[in-house]
Design goal:
about 300 residues; alpha+beta; globular; disordered C terminus
Length: about 300
């Protein structure tokens, strides 16, 4: 027993001498303060801040009960819509609307453009909710394999899922149409099945369900086979007759890639779980609401974008 006490005393003295030599001896009050944080707003603010920031995987886990329906979660149709991506979608949609308005006026004097087709594009963009999403997969396996995709979310960022879309959306010289999908449907067949859709175009952009943009040749000299999948969106590019036309050819596929992946979509705040309502391009309302007959035609032809419920 004496030997044990002797060794313990030596160890305690050694630690005390070392701390003293380094000037690191703490006063009892200081030690107590370091061990028992004072009741201040600092720690609680840090806890509040951390409570308002979750990674995608954490947010999905927290809101799993809200997002799950009778069929569970269809991960290809789940999405994350951050405030930044929604702002980007709004910005793109606003500029696309006015660029198309300018091009449709130009089409009156240039028969290489379809005035009615461009006006239809413009109306559909004006009536499509401002959505925006992170392009790519957000299923647990993808987030585990690629941790960089598991970005932090805060209040104001949304998560959600859509019902599966079984049709193809085609943007062409004759406007916007929803086409029935069938196994083996190719890009060439989809365009050829709609008279006037190709016009003088040489390329088309396919926007996949995951938001990937694939450009394919569609004319006789550069035809590139491509098999479409349900939910794909296709843009038949305009002839590159101006800088505005070239910009629309690049930016419309990007805008479509940011749209939510399916129809009848629902979204909640990533942190609070509160249901969220989408808004629209207010700048376009005076033009898109001015022609009720065209709007009825759009509905009757089934040409509204996926997920758009007027």
């Amino acid at each position: 027993m004496k030997s044990y006490l002797h060794e313990r005393l030596k160890a305690a003295l050694g630690v005390a001498m070392l701390a003293s030599a380094c000037g690191a001896l703490l006063l009892p009050g200081a030690a107590l303060a370091s061990e028992t944080p004072a009741a201040s707003s600092g720690p609680s603010q840090d806890q509040d801040a951390s409570a308002q920031t979750l990674t995608i995987s954490e947010a999905l886990s927290r809101q799993l009960g809200v997002l799950t329906d009778a069929n569970g979660i269809g991960w290809p149709h789940a999405f994350v819509a951050t405030q930044q991506t929604r702002d980007r979608t709004r910005e793109l949609g606003r500029r696309l609307f006015f660029e198309l308005r300018q091009l449709s006026s130009q089409a009156v004097f240039d028969d290489r453009l379809s005035a009615e087709g461009l006006k239809h594009w413009m109306r559909i963009i004006g009536r499509t909710p401002v959505e925006g999403r992170q392009v790519g997969r957000i299923d647990p396996i993808a987030l585990w394999r690629f941790p960089r995709l598991d970005i932090p979310l805060t209040t104001g960022d949304w998560i959600g899922q859509c019902q599966a879309e079984t049709r193809i959306q085609l943007w062409s010289a004759v406007g916007v149409r929803q086409l029935d999908w069938r196994p083996g449907l190719t890009l060439h067949d989809a365009i050829a099945g709609l008279p006037g859709a190709q016009a003088d175009s040489e390329h088309a952009s396919v926007i996949t369900l995951g938001g990937r943009i694939i450009v394919r040749g569609i004319s006789a000299w550069n035809d590139q086979p491509y098999t479409l999948a349900p939910g794909d969106r296709v843009v038949v590019n305009m002839p590159r007759i101006s800088a505005a036309a070239a910009w629309v050819n690049r930016s419309l596929p990007e805008w479509l890639s940011l749209q939510w992946p399916g129809k009848e979509c629902r979204s909640v705040d990533a942190i609070t779980g509160e249901p969220q309502q989408r808004d629209y391009l207010q700048v376009a309302r005076q033009y898109t609401d001015s022609d009720d007959s065209d709007y009825r035609d759009d509905k009757d032809s089934g040409s509204l974008p996926q997920g758009d419920t007027p």
